Amino acid sequence: MEMPKVDPFTLARKDELVRALGAVLPEDAIVYAETELRAYECDGLTAYKCPPLAVVLPRSTEEVSHVLRICHDMDIPVVPRGAGTSLAGGSLPTADSVILGVARLTDVLEVNYDDRFIRVQTGRTNLSVTGAVEADGFFYAPDPSSQLACAIAGNIAMNSGGAHCLKYGVTTNNLLGVTLVQMDGTVVEIGGAHMDAGGLDLLGVVCGSEGQLGVVTEAVLRVLPKPEGARPVLIAFDDNETAGACVADIIKAGVLPVAIEFMDRPVIRASEAFAGAGYPDVEALLIVEVEGSEAEIDEQLGLIEEIARRHEPVELRRSTSDDESARIWLGRKSAFGAMGQINDYMCLDGTIPVSELPRVLRGISDLSDRYGLKVGNVFHAGDGNMHPLILFDANKAGDLELCEEMGAEILKLCVEVGGCLTGEHGVGVEKRDLMGHQFTADDMEVQMRVKDVFDPKWLLNPAKVFPLATTAERRA
Amino acid sequence: MLRPETEAELAEIVRGANGPLAVQGGATRHMPAEGDGLTTAGLSGITLYEPGALTLVVRAGTPMAEIEAALEAEGQRLPFEPMDHRGLLGTEGVPTIGGAVALNVSGPRRVTVGACRDSLIGVRFVDGEGRVVKNGGRVMKNVTGYDLVKLLAGSRGRLGILSEVSFKVLPAAATEATLRLDGLSVAEAVRAMASGLTSPFEVNAAAHDPAAGATWLRIEGLAGSVDYRAGELAGRLAAFGTTTRLDLADSARIWRGVRDAEAMAGPGDVWRIHARPSHAPELVARAGAEAVLLDWGGGLIWVRVAEGTELRARLGSFDGHATRVRGGVDLPPEVPAIAALTAGLRAKFDPRGVLAGAGA
Q: Do residues B105 and A314 lie in contact, with contact meaning Cβ atoms separated by under 8 Å?
């Protein structure tokens, strides 16, 4: 992975930087000792590591503003960091950059059920946002699988999704307002507790900008009343294509499940060995979940099962209790851990039109044969967001490179059939060099012009999202 | 009137433009700006519709009616319930989807399923230098690069001229139920609507018309589920009075009326106020309006006031913003930091000032 050349002039100014930061931050908010910097050398994409020049952990929007102003004036790049769970290297530092972590910004600032929102500092974890409102019967809908650890700041930066997007949308659909600190220290309030921020949709472009437009310190999030109940049905098929056709028919029928999850045989077997959820040994499994009262759940599941039967499933198992529901979800929720136990793996994140599912699964299988690397598929079928897991051996020379090459081929296939490189993880450094397969030079130029406006010096997370050669002039 | 028939022609016209272009779709939603007239009506037709993937891709000049008919044939719909502006503005012509996107037009269901921009998953547009740009695509989960899809939605044609738009569509509901409460004050109505919207019964629209003395809450879904939830909701709302369940025809008529702000009929300026729902009673009192309609549980307040009324002065400071939509478009003022970003983006997307935009 190529990263920009380190600026020796910046490295030489480390003491000066630390002194300047010390004037605006308490001592415990600055990390600069070599050994302590190690903790920030990578995020969830552990294949790439580099300790930063320094780390700051501010406790307020004002402190964030001071830090950014200092770095702006000294021309030092800043890499914002939520909880560091990015799978795309979104918070991977360079040796001449400052990591700005929001981990100490964790307060709930306001909860208002009449207006159906919560205002939080963005270092708060996704799950603890729901935690702050669930006793009152509410929840925050986006649920990335890292929700126990990941921070709202990172969710906003990557526009995170989750398993229940089909019904509730992704982060951008549940975000009402932000407090954004620009690279020059300017603090901007965008949107608020009202619907539609007004003017140009700056909120829309900030969400998903991978920390390149500003640092979001506070967010107003939509909270929703919890449904009365939820229950899944497990549907097993002899082949992937039939499972794919069944997904399309369910969606078309007018019943909108909250989740449709898909697992193929390698994943089923691995998760079965790991978690023992009692899955049948078949080619493809669907977990379809619906919400409502008992009677409503029965009505919806009845319709879904009727559709599924037309595709002659090997097995159809409707949950009749919370216990059974938990068992059905157990295997799916353990899938990534199970695969990780048997192998190193790389998790992809391309999205495809649901109708292309059979073709793409065939294509992945062909690539698997060609590269000699095994692949498991587990993904959100309702919205076409695939997560192929390519298995490789990190200790075998050349295997990581082979795996990356194959991953790139799969993502190109996703784009070719009308999809995209990343559905919820973000581009980061991981998919940066594939952007040219999805976008023309003009498409990227216009996107980069947005960054020109928010961060004219290109100091915020500058080595991400776009191919390095494309941004070279702007970063110079 | 310039009338490109292809995206390439549109790009060529923009590249060759010497002064501002007054872009319009069907010109039903606003008065075109000053400049050489350009209509996107020639860029028309459904490019791709896959009901099984909930995906619709259409050229920007496609009439709304054509889109609605195609979706209805498959039992689907645009989730955001876009209004028809002809009644409110007294315009004639054919409303297009591009106009709905350019103004981020969203109706009663917005309070729960989101605005037009939330259903929009892809755009193609021509920027002020004649560059053809695509962003997003045809899949509903996509975080590849910056989200210019949202930025273009509601940009009033000031950043680019839309040539094609893609949507996540949804199944149309099998049936619906609307419950009406009678004789509530604005404050009581807002509390009743909040009670419905914070219930687990999936109320997906809530409106209040003081002149009609009516407060409506809507539920949609499968028949058994709708009956169950309507019953539970009526019980929950009992503290606010007796509810009446409307028949299907009345329900459809009521929500069409709310969507199109029919309560604003009559002379005067019309404003839209976006605010915290719980602040609606206070804002309605300050507005001193001749007619009022609350949608989105009170989050959207329509008011009709005498021509030339300085409504913002009456409202004073509040969380939200007010836009005059009839009587001359008047967009909310922006704080300096936001204004600087807006001006910066306009300068980057349209350095020559060709995109006069719609009413601002």
A: no
> What part of A 431-450 touches B (C-beta under 8 Å)?
431, 435, 438-440, 442-447, 449-450
Q: Is A195 on the interface with B (CB under 8 A)?
A: yes
A187 contacts in B (CB within 8 Å)? 337
Residue A400 lies in a domain: yes
- pLDDT band with cut points at 50, 70 and 90 for residue B360: very low
Quick check: is A216 in a domain?
A: no
Asked if residue B301 lies in contact with residue B328, where contact means CB atoms within 8 angstroms, the answer is no
| DSSP 8-state symbol, A280 | -
Buried b (16+ CB within 10 A) or exposed e, B164-200: bbbbbbbbbbbbbbbbbbeebebebbbbbbbbbbbbb
| Best to test chain B binding among A173, A175, A181, A195 (most B CBs inside 10 Å) | A195
Question: Are A360 and A376 spatial neighbours (Cβ–Cβ below 8 Å)?
Answer: no
Which of A196, A352, A353 shows the shortest C-beta gap to B274?
A196
Q: Is A302 in the B-facing interface, judged by CB distances under 8 Å?
A: no
Please, what are the domains in chain B? 7-171 (3.30.465.10), 175-259 (3.30.70.2190)
Residue A316 belongs to a domain with what CATH number? 3.30.70.3450
The last residue of one of the domains, among A103, A128, A143, is A103
Per DSSP, helices labelled H in A198-321 are 202-206, 240-252, 265-275, 294-309
Q: What is the rounded distance in angstroms from the CA atom of residue B45 to the CA atom of residue B40?
A: 11
Which tokens sit at A78? 């800043």
- Pick from A319-323, B146-150, B237-241: least confident: A319-323
Indicate if A233 and A298 belong to the same structural domain. Answer: yes
Are residues A285 and A326 both part of a single domain? yes
Cβ within 8 Å, pair B145-A225: no
Residue range A186-192: mean pLDDT, rounded = 97
CATH number at A378 reads 3.30.70.2740
Which helix (H) or strand (E) element contains residue A377?
strand A375-380
pLDDT at residue number A251: 86
Predicted TM-score (pTM) above 0.90: yes
Chain A hits for B323, CB-CB cut-off 8 Å, are 198
Instruction: Check whether residue A287 and residue A377 sit in a common domain.
Output: no
The answer to whether residues B230 and B216 touch, using CB atoms and an 8 Å cutoff, is no
Instruction: Give yes or no: residues A301 and A360 share one domain.
Output: no
Q: Which of A76, A103, A130 is the last residue of a domain?
A: A103
CA distances to A364, A367, A393 from A370, rounded to whole Å, are: 10, 5, 17
Residue A39, domain CATH? 3.30.43.10
At B273-285, the pLDDT tens digits run 999 999 999 999 9
Q: Would you say residue A84 lies in a domain?
A: yes
For residues A327 and A418, membership in a common domain is answered with: no
Answer whether A353 sits within 8 Å of B158, measured CB to CB.
Answer: no
SS (H, E, C) A91-114: CCCCCCCEEEECCCCCCEEEEECC
**Which domain does A387 fall in, by range?**
343-426
Q: Which of A256, A383, A425 shows the shortest C-beta gap to B140? A: A383
Whether A208 and B194 lie within 8 Å, measured CB to CB? no
* Total structural domains within chain A: 3
The answer to whether residues A372 and A417 belong to one domain is: yes
Q: Rounded to a whole number, what is the distance in Å from the CA of B187 to chain A's nearest CA?
A: 12
Q: For A161-176, how does the pLDDT look when each residue is reduced to its tens digit (9 = 90+)?
A: 988 888 899 999 999 9
| Residue A147 in domain | no
